[in-house]
Records
---
Amino acid sequence: MNSGMRRGLTSYGDPEFSAYLRKAFIKAMGYSEDAIERPIVGITNTYSDFNPCHGNVPQLIEAVKRGVMLAGGMPMVFPTITLHESFAYPTSMFLRNLMAMDTEEMILSLPVDSIIAIGGCDKTLPAQIMAIASANRPAIVLPTGAMLTGSHRGERLGACTDCRRFWARYRGGDIDASEIEEVSGRLVPSIGTCSVMGTASTMSGLCEALGLSLPYSGSIPAVYAERMRIAENTGRRAVELIAENLTPRDILTRKSLLNAMVVLQAMGGSTNAVIHLAAIAGRVGLQLDFDELDRIGRAVPVLVDLKPSGEYYMEDFHASGGFPALMAEVRDFLDLDVLSVSPTPFWQVLDTARADPTPRKAIRTIEAPVSSRGAIAILHGNLAPNGAVIKQSAASPSLMQHEGRALVFDGVEDLVARIDLPDLDVKPEDILVLRNAGPRGGQGMPEAGYLPIPAKLAKAGVKDMVRISDARMSGTGFGTVVLHISPEAAVGGPLSFVRTGDRIRLDVAARRLDLLVSDAELSERRAQWSARAKPRARGYAALFDRAVTQADKGCDFDFLVSEH
Ligand code: FES
């Protein structure tokens, strides 16, 4: 039988010897015959002293193991890479594919009959979904859950929208160095993922929408006892999935991706999720349909009243019914005929959520939305032939149609060197352009797209400007920020031809981003273009530079994308 401890035997040229040797070694860990004959559930351990977003992973693992054993399985924990946004140089996106490869290869290499992937911080859930999609063993994702909120001088605080808000106030001279220091001790009051609708919350919600997590897994705060109980249930369910042989590729279909897009728009989710969904789609032989995402955004309003698009925080969202309550509200846009890891059919989960009389202060109704349009719009134009994104729900309405003079920064270093110069020639109506910050040019597409307002304008009270780039932005960011311009400047995309002083027009209603320069002039600039940087030669960086795809393809490695 090719399962349990006999699965994927190490090759010595004699399978019976391999099985005998494996048994001998695992017995050294104290396991009995009974234990090693059980179905084996592999559990990824992504705990690290450098990852506070995963600070509850040891407790979650204990709860998951309990559930596995209650269901008659054998839990086996193994480590994988873990990623935290603030502890990933140069950027966590550079390492997402490494984590996906590590997780996939460990799943394929170990004798596990099903998998529980425990993750949370921004890039971890996408990496794990990409991995389980490619490995295609029965699998459930268990998010670590969001942190609680803190307070500062009577004001409620949550990472990391308020991190940025207070930093902007500090830059603008509104608060001093001692107060910003005080704030830094209050912004992250517990372990868990960021407490707003940033990338981590978005991805944990998309795990539910895609059918990869149990209902409510996406919203229960990290430190609640409820999270331990859902971990136990996840363990139980992972044993049942082995008998059902339900795999991620059964679950990840065009229909479930459409559901994810609906939920992404309705939750006011992070722009980063567009890249991750494109990568996940690629792992199962599909392409994310950007036109469809935009069409959904025109029909499905933002209903989740969480920062950065709204008012509240993840613990309020959970108290309002979490993702099942949200999905019940947009039920008419969802395809309910989809598979999921939950033993309860999707429609029944939504029926139960709809019947729940809990007041929903953080989830609006379709009739009274946070914003009448979805969170994310897809732009095209001569500056973004393969598309760009804008989080319109977090943008300034007055800047959604705007024409201005370009002020170009040639990379993140140039931005850092010049943005705060007192004699910088910049006006509030200018358009700030950052390039060479894409997947290749930025060595992993840093979250530098949220360009700071130049110090001299910030001090004068300017809060928002149109900013465009081939970079990403944290899901906790806000403002009129166009991101993921594709193709990026480093591979010769039109962004590389922009010169300071050119006119650029942004028209979100028309879904356009254009450089107002004649075609003839553009052709001339194109003819003069040459690549700035050579691909790196060594190690993972060399692999990354050779194989990373553009933002519209999810920044996955080209050799990891599935053809079917
Ligand atoms: Fe980990 Fe925000 S830093 S979720």
Note: Residues 53, 84-85, 121-122, 160, 193-194, 198, 200 surround FE2/S2 (inorganic) cluster (CB under 6 Å).
---
Amino acid sequence: MIFTVAIDGPAAAGKGTISRAVAARFGFAHLDTGLLYRAVGVLGGDPAQAARCLRPEDLTRADLRSLEAGQAASRVAAIPEVRAALVDFQRRFARRQGGAVLDGRDIGTVICPEAEAKLYVTASPQVRAHRRWCEVGGDEAVVLAEVQERDARDMGRADAPLRPAQDAVILDTSAMTIDEAVDRAVAVIAARRGEHRRG
Ligand code: DC
């Protein structure tokens, strides 16, 4: 059975939490594609070369979750050669047997336009910055500026900019609890699975 769930959206909208919960609920494999760009960003050197030579152990580094790694990821993600080097791996993962959930920025638009279920998870910049600030601490205004800077770069780049796929279901989590957001996502995917099974 091949069934791809594409979950895209801006930083700190809840994609990761929703993706993990959905993967567990349906028994699908999960790939956080942001980790690929974060690893390339922190490896340093020539980003295109780093992307071509990425190894599984690079994705388990302890420093990948920091704000700095997020900014570095967003910068290298604007380089077309970096994106190109990471496409095949993501496509193979998406179309593996048994079902897959991928979260990122361009899964439903570029990596897997044929995905059987697509969600675009978003929330206001203020809500996203507040959530991120609760995790990392520091000055909330600085975290908000960082979120807005990353949004502008991810949405404004020429190659695979962040935007909802035309057939994505938009999930605005600004006023939702995590459980509500997960329930909504599960309902959307369950409906798509039903349609898919009926063929
Ligand atoms: O989801 P994240 O915060 O870990 O992503 C970090 C950066 O990587 C993000 O700002 C843009 C980039 N990215 C991307 O361009 N395409 C993806 N599919 C995933 C992440």
Note: The mean pLDDT is 96.
